[in-house]
Amino acid sequence: MGCSGARAETPAPVPKPAQIDRNGVLILIRSSLLALDQANKTGNYTVLRDIGAPGFQSNTAARLGEIFAKLRNDNLDLSGVAVIDPQLNLLPQIEANGLMHMAGFFPSVPTQVNFDLAFAPVNGHWRLFGISVSTGPSAPAAPTPPEPPVAQKQPAANGARPPAAAKPAPAARLAPADHKPADNQPSK
Predict the structure, then answer these.
(1) What percent of the chain is predicted at pLDDT more than 90?
(2) What is the dihedral of CA 84, 88, 91, 93, to 10 degrees?
(3) pLDDT (tens digit per residue) in 30-66
(4) What is the distance between the alpha carbons of residues 84 and 135, in angstroms, rounded to a whole number?
């Protein structure tokens, strides 16, 4: 005899924001991507594997070399991540499985570096669990605003003059780079 019935579907748990400060986020992103960069440059993926969480360490160094072969063969240089600030399009969040997930890009030109990272908690520290890196065109630039229409001079009603066009402010003069007083300033 078969039993037919409906069960209530439980909604998937909603990810919650991770309790991590900006510096912690920068350290995790940069250290992970720089480890990948060094592994790609040397062809040695053991350190990248060893800094990961146990689930990440299930990959052999040879397997990681296969996974990242395209980035290595493309000679992708990730060293710029040490100085460029990443832009996050997925703020750090704790997923239902306990992993901290974040994603974003480094706005470099002519191509930007996109990343998607997952970290697992191991002995009170976040350790790399998943990493995906790709490149793409830099984010499109904002369109330039259209030129304002040229006003044709028309006689103003009741003889009033049209408002004068605004004049640009003069450019500010910077102090000399050697921090010495400018010629026209008295020395202290």
Answers:
(1) 58
(2) -80
(3) 999 999 999 999 999 999 999 999 999 999 999 999 9
(4) 15
Distance from the Cα of residue 74 to its chain's centroid? 21
Which amino acid does the sequence have at 17? P
Cα–Cα dist 43/100, whole Å = 28
The residue with tokens 């998607």 is 116
Q: What is the DSSP string of 85-117?
A: PPEEEEEEEE-TTS-EEEEEEE--SSEEEEEEE
Instruction: Work out the percent of the chain whose per-residue pLDDT is above 70.
Output: 67
Four-residue CA torsion sign, 76, 78, 79, 84: positive
Q: What are phi and psi of 30, to 5 degrees?
A: -65, -45
pTM, to two decimals:
0.67
DSSP 50-77: HTB-HHHHTS-HHHHHHHTHHHHHTT--
* Phi and psi, residue 114, nearest 5°: -100, 140
Number of residues that this document lists for the chain: 188
